[in-house]
Amino acid sequence: EKKIFTVQGPYPVIRGLLRARGWVERKLHRASSQPRQQHGMQEKQLQEEKGGNGDAAKQWEAVSDIHSGSACRGGQPSLETLHDPWPPQEEEQEKCVEDPDGDHDLMSYLVQDQVPYFIWTNHCSAVNVWLLRQDQVLNHYTRVDAFATKEGLCRNLRNLPWFAQADPDTFFPRCYQLGDADERQAFIEDFRLTAARSLLKMALERAGDTLAGLEQQPPKPSKEPGESKQVPMSQIPYSVPPTAGPVSLLPPQLVEEALRICGQHLASLRHQDIDGDFVFPCMIGTNWDHFMQDYYRMTHEGAGLALSGAQTEQCRSVLQCLAEQLPQLGMEGDHNVWILKPSAKSRGRGIVCTDRLEEVLRLAGGCTGPSAQANKWVVQKYVERPLLIFGTKFDVRQWFLVTNWNPLTIWFYRDSYLRFCSRPFSLRCLEPSGHLCNVSIQKQFRTAQGQQHPQLPPDLIWSCHQFQSYLEQVGQASAWHEVMVPGMKAAVVGALCSTQHLVGARKSSFELYGADFLFGEDCQPWLLEINTSPTMAPSSVVTSRLCARVQRDTLRVIIDRKNDPACPTGAFELFYKE
To answer: CB-based contacts of 377: which residues, under 8 Å, 6+ apart?
Structure first.
């Protein structure tokens, strides 16, 4: 019945579920400890060069090529050169738990010369897909870097209006590839324009004016007082340090300059070409060095800025007009914080948050030189108005499954989980502990923290059901099903539609992805990135349960549904099919 499978990596759930279905594993040959170590070093280098967003590094990634000359038997593809990526102690533990009597080893020996018809690996490059037969099922597609890398998502989502009636600016924070000279200059101009808008916003806020209609509306707090209330944005400290003594005043001409800059930008936005290319006005007569110095004095040193009555009305009018043209005006806040990401690294490594243009350009200084390919960076607008829980930032890991690219067929997983930062959110301090929700980052701060809210779990993980209970407590019971989930689905469809023509659409393949989302104060989701090989490591009580379920339900969709289209698919729902 062709029930032979091969699994690369520590996936005991997949192995156990396939064996329960009567499948026999064709095990990979064990490599000696020395080749395994060398192979691990080669894989690490290759992973950093590829720059993928995969989580598989947490699961002992291995990348092995299968070449036609050495990996075929009788004209059939072979997995002989695919090394098992586990360290010896995990290999022994797995054997003890799953095969105490050695029965599976015996059956594996009997099928060692047979072709596996189900292949599950950590990375697509572990298998030469060109050598696979049409009836061999693989858990990867090729060329998914078009949306599963930071620079791929940044580059290709701009083309979404050509493929669908959707605006990526409504769900993906604007992003630039600093290795491209044109995009680098576009970022510089965007930073300056954002500075001008931020200056007007802060001037109004310090004058006690309200920006009606410009800010995101936070969820309504619970009617009952207690610790479960949503922290208002007004209680989030600014990056401006408290000042002692008299406050220096900036010249009133600075407001006039910011109004002129924003007015020119507004005029250019109203005449934007359908091409969707970068639209930034040529700021004739603007002394940017002088303007940015005064802007930094206001935002970082607390310098004051007095507004006349006429200027107040002008600021409010210009910002309201810009809000009609810029979907990100609310979430961008007024501190001009950007997040710099090295595209060749995963798990949050090398990511920096900053609110200074010079720092971005300094950190990514070599990305336009001859070594640009080895030093790619993307810079993205930071969501300064995130939805907080107990004053703490969080993001959501949301799984989805693609079973066909033509027609595009997407399954959405109804269960997901939240990852919290270990420190309270503050724009005064841009350290990773309060701004990067990645588990690999936050585990460095758990033991040393002390500022963690007492109602947050020690492992900093919630299930989406716990989140829904919290939303109900703060008066937003409908937000999850009416705003958040539909928004996440729309973002996933947008990202895949914009890259559908670039992906290798092999018919017998499928792939499970992990998308990371952040929610704004208005509960609207913002897509951060999409990961291949999302981690299945049981890092918490919640993830240990959910990761096992998503693997079980993936096999239901891929294997069981072939024989019984009406079979249950667990928490997977088919929500998009062309």
So the answer is: 177, 178, 179, 340, 341, 342, 343, 363, 364, 367
Instruction: Count the alpha carbons within 13 Å of 492 in the hemisphere toward its beta carbon.
Output: 29
Cβ atoms within 10 Å of 133's Cβ, excluding its own: 10
Q: CA 329 to CA 322: how far, in whole Å?
A: 8
Q: What is the pLDDT of residues 108-151, one digit of tens each?
A: 888 889 999 999 999 888 899 999 999 999 999 999 999 999 99
H or E element that contains 310: helix 309-325
C-alpha torsion sign, points 76, 81, 86, 90: positive
Residue 437's closest CA among 429, 445, 448?
A: 445
Q: Is 159 exposed, middle or buried (0-12, 13-18, 19+ CB in 10 A)?
A: middle
Distance CA 399, CA 391 (A): 26
State how far the Cα of 193 lies from the Cα of 214, in Å rounded to an integer: 17
pLDDT of residue 80: 41
* Burial class of 406 by CB neighbour count within 10 A (0 to 12, 13 to 18, 19+): exposed
The model's pLDDT over 345-400, given as tens digits with 9 standing for 90+, comes to 555 567 899 999 999 998 877 554 444 443 578 999 999 999 999 999 999 999 99
Helix (H) or strand (E) holding 577: strand 572-577
Rounded to the nearest integer, the mean pLDDT of the chain is: 80
Alpha-carbon dihedral sign for residues 541, 544, 549, 554:
positive
What single DSSP character describes residue 134? T
Sign (positive/negative) of CA torsion 558, 563, 566, 568? negative
How many CB atoms are closer than 10 A to CB 317?
11
Q: Quick one: what percent of the chain has pLDDT higher than 70?
A: 74
Tokens of 19: 């064996």
Q: What separation in angstroms does the CA of 323 have from each of 305, 317, 426?
A: 23, 10, 25
Query: Do residues 398 and 376 lie in contact, with contact meaning Cβ atoms separated by under 8 Å?
Result: no
Quickly state the pLDDT bin for 283 (edges 50, 70, 90): low
Predicted pLDDT of residue 555: 98
Which pLDDT band, with edges at 50, 70 and 90, does 86 fall under? very low
DSSP labels for 160-189? HHHHSS--GGGTS--EEETTSHHHHHHHHH
Report the 10 Å Cβ neighbour count for 369: 9
H-run or E-run covering 12: helix 12-20
Q: For residue 348, which of 447, 237, 422 has the smallest C-alpha distance?
A: 422
